[in-house]
Design a protein that fits this description.
Strand content: 25-35%
Helix content: 25-40%
Distance between the termini: 14 Å
Shape: elongated
Structural class: alpha/beta
CATH topology of the largest domain: UDP-n-acetylglucosamine1-carboxyvinyl-transferase, Chain
CATH architecture of the largest domain: Alpha-beta prism
Bound molecules: ligand EPZ
Number of strands: 24
Oligomer: single chain
C-alpha cells in the first residue's frame, strides 16, 4: 500500500485545477440507469470511488467507457441484473443509490444495505421511506433491501424528510424522474450537488423545479433521454486546497472553483485573516506572513459550514492564534483526525461533538494515518504546514476522493511524494 511523504514548511504558490465533484459524479453515474440511451458525463473526476461505481454499474449491464480527457460514457441499453451484492455496496455507500433507479426502470431490485462506516452509523431509513412513498414495497431480508414497484410502476408522492439528508433527497429525485406524475420533496437538502443532479435529470427530460431550495418538485417521465452533462466543480476539493494554502502560506488560484458554493467557508477563513476572493472562473487564496486567528465553526447542512471540510479546517485552526471551538452536528463520530493532529503537536480536546483547538505556533512532522477520506487529507494539510517530515499512511482513503493530489500540490511548490509502503515485518 502506498503512503504520502511530505517535507513540510514550504509555501504554496501557483494554480490548481479543481476537478468535478465526487459526490455529484457518483449520483450522476447512477442516473445512467434511468435511460436506454448513452449518458455522457464530462469534467468527471478520476477517482477510486468513481471507478468503483463504474464496476457496480457494469455488473448491472451498463456499458461504462472512459473517454478522452475527463469524459465518461455510460450506456444502459439494457439492465441485465437488478442485484447489487454486499461486497459492492459495503465499500462505498453511494452505490446504494442504484436501488431507486433500478426499481423505477425494472420494477424490482435487490440491493445490499450499506451498513455503517467510520464516521457514523449512517442509516438509510429516509431513503427507504421515500421509495415507499412512491409506491415501492420494501422488505429487508438477510442484510438486503428488496424493493418492488406496484403494477404500472412507481407513482409520484409527497416525501417529507425529517432531516435534510443529501443522499435521501438525491435518491428520491432519481426514482421520481421515472415515476408517474409529480413528486414533491419537502425539507430537501440544498447542496450544490442536488442542483447538479436536477440539471442533469431536467436535461434528460424530467421536469425538476426548486433544486437549491427546501421544496423540490419533480415531474416524472415514462422515458428519459441520453444527454451530455458537465459535472459541477468539487466544492470540497476547493475547500481542501484553500485551507492547505491558508495553513502553509502562499498565493494560489483555484481554477474551476465555484465561489458561490463555499460562502460559509470563505466567511470563516476571512475571519481567520486569510484573503479569499473570487476571480474569473475561480477563487484566489492568499496568506502572507501573519498567523491565522482561531475561529469557531459548527457544521450544518448547506449553505452552512460543510462537514466534509471540518477536518481540514481543524488542521488550519491547530496553527491559529487563540482558541477555536469546532462543533460537528452531521455525523456522530467525525473527529478521528484529532488524535492524529495531536501527534503532529496540535493541542485539541474533544468532548462529544465539540473539539476545542488551542492553536500552537508550529506543528512537527510525524507518521500518521486516518480512517476516512477527509480526515486523511486534513493530515496532509497539517503535514504541509509542519516542520520536518510527515508520512500519511493508508493512502487509499485519499485516492477515493482526491484526483492527483500530489501532482496538484507539488505543482505549487509542495514537497510531497507517493511512496510504496514497506511490507510489515
Ligand atoms: C453525503 O452523504 C456525502 N456523500 C457525504 O460526503 C457528506 O458528508 C454528507 O452528504 C453531508 O453533506 C456522498 O454524497 C456520497 P446525509 P449522505 O444523508 O448522503 C443521517 C465524503 O467525505 N441519515 O445528508 O450519506 C446520517 O446518518 C462523504 O465525501 C439518517 O439518519 O449524507 C447523517 O448523520 C462523507 N437516515 C445525516 O443524516 C438516512 O436515511 C446526514 O446524512 C439518511 C441519513
Amino acid at each position: 500500500m502506498d503512503r504520502i511523504v511530505i517535507q513540510g514548511g514550504t509555501r504554496l504558490d501557483g494554480r490548481i485545477a479543481i476537478s468535478g465533484a465526487k459526490n455529484s459524479a457518483l449520483k450522476l453515474m447512477a442516473a445512467s440507469l434511468l435511460t436506454d440511451e448513452p449518458l455522457i458525463l464530462t469534467n468527471m473526476p478520476r477517482l477510486a470511488d468513481s471507478r468503483f461505481m463504474g464496476h457496480l454499474l457494469a455488473r448491472l449491464g451498463v456499458r461504462v467507457e472512459e473517454g478522452p480527457g475527463a469524459q465518461m460514457q455510460l450506456h444502459a441499453a439494457e439492465i441485465s441484473d437488478t442485484f447489487a451484492p454486499y461486497d459492492l455496496v459495503r465499500k462505498m455507500r453511494a452505490t446504494f443509490n442504484v436501488l431507486g433507479p433500478l426499481v423505477a426502470r425494472e420494477g424490482q431490485a435487490r440491493v445490499s444495505l450499506p451498513g455503517g462506516c467510520a464516521i457514523g452509523a449512517r442509516p438509510v431509513d429516509l431513503h427507504l421511506k421515500a421509495l415507499e412513498t412512491l409506491g415501492a414495497e420494501i422488505t429487508l431480508t438477510e442484510g438486503y433491501v428488496e424493493a418492488r414497484a406496484p403494477k404500472g410502476g412507481l407513482v409520484g408522492g409527497e416525501v417529507d424528510l425529517p432531516f435534510a439528508s443529501v443522499g435521501a433527497t438525491e435518491h428520491t429525485m432519481l426514482a421520481a424522474a421515472l415515476a408517474r406524475g409529480e413528486t414533491v420533496i419537502e425539507n430537501a437538502a440544498r447542496e450544490p450537488e442536488i442542483g447538479d443532479l436536477a440539471a442533469c435529470l431536467t436535461a434528460m427530460g424530467a421536469e425538476v423545479e426548486g433544486a437549491g431550495t427546501s421544496t423540490i418538485r419533480i415531474q416524472g417521465r415514462e422515458k428519459l433521454d441520453g444527454i451530455t452533462h458537465a459535472v459541477v466543480g468539487d466544492r470540497i476539493e476547493t475547500a481542501t486546497y484553500a485551507l492547505a494554502v491558508a495553513a502553509a502560506g502562499g498565493e494560489v488560484t483555484l481554477d474551476g472553483a465555484v465561489w458561490a458554493h463555499n460562502k460559509a467557508l470563505w466567511n470563516a477563513m476571512g475571519e481567520a485573516g486569510v484573503t479569499v476572493k473570487p476571480v474569473e472562473n475561480g477563487v484566489r487564496i492568499e496568506r502572507n506572513g501573519a498567523r491565522v486567528k482561531g475561529v469557531d465553526i459548527e457544521t450544518q447542512p448547506y449553505p452552512g459550514f460543510p462537514t466534509d471540510a471540518q477536518a481540514q479546517f481543524m488542521a488550519l485552526m491547530s496553527l491559529g492564534e487563540g482558541t477555536s471551538v469546532i462543533r460537528e452536528t452531521i455525523f456522530e463520530n467525525r473527529f478521528m483526525h484529532a488524535p492524529e493532529l495531536i501527534r503532529l503537536g496540535a493541542d485539541i480536546t474533544v468532548h462529544g461533538n465539540e473539539a476545542v483547538v488551542r492553536g500552537v505556533e508550529r506543528l512537527k512532522g510525524a507518521p500518521v494515518m486516518a480512517t476516512d477520506l477527509r480526515a486523511s487529507v486534513s493530515l496532509v494539510i497539517a503535514g504541509l504546514a509542519a516542520e520536518g517530515e510527515t508520512v500519511v499512511n493508508r493512502v487509499y482513503h485519499l485516492d477515493r476522493g482526491f484526483e492527483r493530489l500530489e501532482a496538484k500540490l507539488s505543482g505549487c511548490g509542495a514537497r510531497i511524494e507517493r511512496q510504496a509502503e514497506p511490507a510489515e515485518s
